Structure formats: C-alpha cells, structure tokens
Amino acid sequence: MLPVTIAGQHFPSPILNASGCFNPENFNRMFPLKGTLGGIVTKTVTAQHQVGNAQYRTVELPGIGMLNSIGIQNAGLDHFLDHDIEQFREYKIPIILSISANSSQKFAQMAEKVVTHPNGKWVDALELNLSCPNIDEGGVHFGVSPISVKQAVQAVCQIFSKPVFAKLTPNVTNITEIGGAAIEGGAHALVAINTVLGLDIDVKLKKPVLERVSGGYSGPGIRPIALQAVWQLHKHFPETPIIAVGGICNTEDALAFFMAGASMIQIGTICFRNPLIFQEIHQQLLQYLDAQDLADISELVGCAHQNVDNPQKIFC
Questions:
Q1: Does domain 4-313 have CATH number 3.20.20.480?
Q2: DSSP secondary structure, 108-127, as one string
Q3: Is residue 88 within 8 Å of 40, Cβ to Cβ?
Q4: Are strands 164-168 and 189-192 parallel, antiparallel or unpaired?
C-alpha cells in the first residue's frame, strides 16, 4: 500500500510534484494521468503579484539538470485563492500551497489570508519556501538562520491549523540545525532539499548564462546532496516525516530516498522531459512492494540506517 498520513492529512500516494513545475493552466497537459499523485504542490505564491527576474532566467544543463532564477513570478495570493485553486480542486487530491514572504509577520499575514478566505478551506497543507531574504534580519536568507526559520514556522502554525511543511535549503553548514529549528517552531514535516546555489558560464560569450549570474541548480546532479540531507535529518529526528526532493529521476532514486528516511518524495526537473514519470514510479513502487512482500511503503522508511555498522562514520 502506498498511502501516507502526515499530521492527520491523508495522501493517497507518497509521490508529489515539486513546487514550480507547472501552473493550473498546464497541469492537465503535463500530468494527464490521475491516480498516481498523492497531492499537488503549487508554484510558490507571494502576498502580492511578482513579475520575476529578467531573461535569461532558466537554462538547461544537458545531462545534469538545469539552472533557474525565476524570481518567484506569480499573480499573488489573492489571485490564487480567487481563481487558481478552483482548477486544482478538480483533481480531488490534497492541495499543498507553497508560500514565500520576506518576514515572519508577512508569513503570518499570508496564513491569515488563507484561513479567512472562502476558498482557503481547500488548502490542505502549507509548504513554506524559506528562500527569500528576511528583512527583519538585515536581508539574511530565512533558510540559513535557525532563528528566522523557527519564527516563520511558528508564526504560521499559530494561525494555520492544518499541516505546515518547512522546505529547507541545502546551502547551509548544518542542515540538521535548521531542521531542528523548524520542528521547534511547529513544522509537521521537513521538505529537503530546495535547489543548490550554482552558476554556469557561456564560454563563447564569456559571461554567465543567467542574467542574475547565479541561480538554483536542480536535477540528477543534486541527488547525493539531497540524499545526505534526508539521511541526516532522519537520523536526528526519526519521528518527523521528511518529504524528499532533489534529483529523483527513476524508481531506484525514489527507493533510495525512502530507505534514507523519507516518508514521501517530490519529483521536479525530470518531469519536464518525462511527464509520465509519476505514473512510472507509482506503478514500479507497487511492483517492488509486492516482490519484497512488503505490506506498506512505511516499512521501507529509514531501513538503510539499520544496515550501517558504525553510523558515526557517515558524516565526516
């Protein structure tokens, strides 16, 4: 069986899309097959409309992934609640709204808007994108400051009674410190990881390929980084569900993340090349459980930790 429950919220499958893969208009085109996704993670929404960054802001890195510096282009929270959420509701699976803000107070205000808006009742969980600079701490990015992370999560959890997921950045020295702060703030699950900071240079033009020089690197190249983060988070916080994201391209990748400690997975970059990847992994996970005589996907979660003779050697 593949269903998963986190903080009372039932998900029919442990497979989610990663935030940023689509908008409501192209969801049906990109993901035509129902019954495989456990929920829909929206593109990140901010309180107000954002136009995003100038082109070039997305570049494919053949064979290893992509770089993006979109700038969280979106129509704003009001537009999402007034219009977009109605289209997502058609799929009759949980809706996980990804939100971002530049202060704990603004995170709280967005949560309040969701709670009080008539259509907010259709939001089943919030995923906090903690990648923005925190204006309350001089522009330091939320995700690298334990204090900022705890305050943001706490501010939302005091208002929003449904599950709150904290999406963690890998661009830190100790991700377990950040994860612990999110848990202290009340996070019901940790999403690991967000994109890795990177850049590429066009050697013909002798300039960076992105207009803003650096951006978020995603794709198969970050899988070992994400796997290490999930391993460490599960090792330190075995009772906290982890939603793994980063470089998952096939069923073997998915299985590795479950075995490292993930309760659910998100799939992102690969779906631009293979929109049917969700169905493929879903079906192959069922076949794997049957072949291994396992009754539930939860039996795999963290199982690799039991096969390490000296766990102290895992982290240098």
A1: no
A2: HHHHHHHHHSGGGGG--EEE
A3: yes
A4: parallel
Structure tokens at 176: 């377990």
Per-residue pLDDT of the chain (316 residues; tens, 9 = 90+): 689 999 999 999 999 999 988 777 666 665 555 679 999 999 999 999 999 888 889 999 988 999 999 888 999 999 999 999 998 998 899 999 999 999 999 999 999 999 999 999 999 999 999 977 555 655 568 899 999 999 999 999 999 999 999 999 999 999 999 999 999 999 999 999 999 999 999 999 999 999 999 999 999 999 999 999 999 999 999 999 999 999 999 999 999 999 999 999 999 999 988 988 999 999 999 999 999 999 999 999 999 999 997 766 555 4
Smallest CA-to-CA distance from 247 within 65, 98, 70, 67 is with 65
Q: How many CB atoms lie within 10 A of CB 209?
A: 19
Question: What Cα–Cα distance (Å) separates residue 149 from each residue in 45, 156, 186, 263?
Answer: 18, 11, 11, 22
pTM equals 0.95
| Rounded CA separation 295/297 (Å) | 7
Residue where the block lists tokens 């960054």: 53
Catalytic residues: 132
Instruction: Identify any residues that bridge with 168 across adjacent strands, giving them in sequence order.
Output: 192
Residue 54: Cβ within 10 Å count? 11
Provide CB contacts within 8 A for 308, sequence distance 6+. Answer: 314
Question: What are the structural domain ranges in the chain?
Answer: 4-313
